[in-house]
Amino acid sequence: MQQALAFVARHGRLGLMVGLAAGLALPGLAAVMRPWIPQLVALLLFLTAFRIGPVDAAGSLADLTRTARRVLVLQLALPILFLLGLHLLGLPVTPLALVAALVLAAPSVTGSANFTILLGHDPAPALRLLILGTALLPLTAIPVFWLLPAFGDPAEVFGAALRLLTVILAAAGCGFALRHWGARHLSDLNRRALDGLTVIALAVIVIALMSAVRPAMTERPGELVFWLLAAFAINLGGQALCFLTLRATGGADPVPTSIVAGNRNFALFFVALPSEVTEPLLIFLGCYQFPMYLTPTLMRRLYDPR
């Protein structure tokens, strides 16, 4: 079994693309799986935490300080600068601008550490950004809400953020505990097998997230193309800008932070938006999965040009 999972890990990028294809080809299965997304996400976090271990995830005091600074830049400074720029230019908050602002203000997606693993880099910084970014979201989101007139009750977002943080801490805590008391030292084969399991979990999760894309392919193809291009520009463009900036300034490995910069859990904010605002954004949510799951394939040349 471990050898089979290690084989899946070696072909992880292909596995993610299979998940995307299945989400498009099997809309009925996507509808059935959609209620299980929270459980699948919790399983993914558990596997990731177990694979990394509590010592590497915690890092040093310098690591935590760097993580806090980067969370404040990614989730607070960037969306505020973006929205203030729109205001100074006299531009309205269109659905596209709203999506960009939500992405910039959101914490990392749960799969960021797994994408980092698939690209051959240390996943611990991405996991720290996920946990700390989600924990600080109720605070970093407040100034952004003041600049977004479309928002409803911010308390709903705070509640959703706290629920998400609870899931993250519970799943990660169980993974860290099992690693600490049950398997402190993993062999290379064990790690590759765990990587294979996470690839399978990611491929399954994306099927459930693609339910809005298939109908748009036949009913609104032009709108689908627009949001698909927007998703690639926001996700991959954000990653590239972050990577080039961090590489120019030197310091720690820029890849984990760059992956987080483009892959954000913006759907968390949907609970605070009225339905007339979120309806057109659901297509973007499905389109956003494409650059997200293609990150290990499309960004490999930039992150590892050798």
TrEMBL record:
Record has Cell wall biogenesis/degradation as a keyword: no
This one is known as Bile acid:Na+ symporter, BASS family
Transmembrane stretches, start-end: 40-59, 71-90, 96-117, 129-148, 160-181, 193-213, 225-246, 266-291
Ordered alphabetically, the record's keywords are: Membrane, Transmembrane, Transmembrane helix
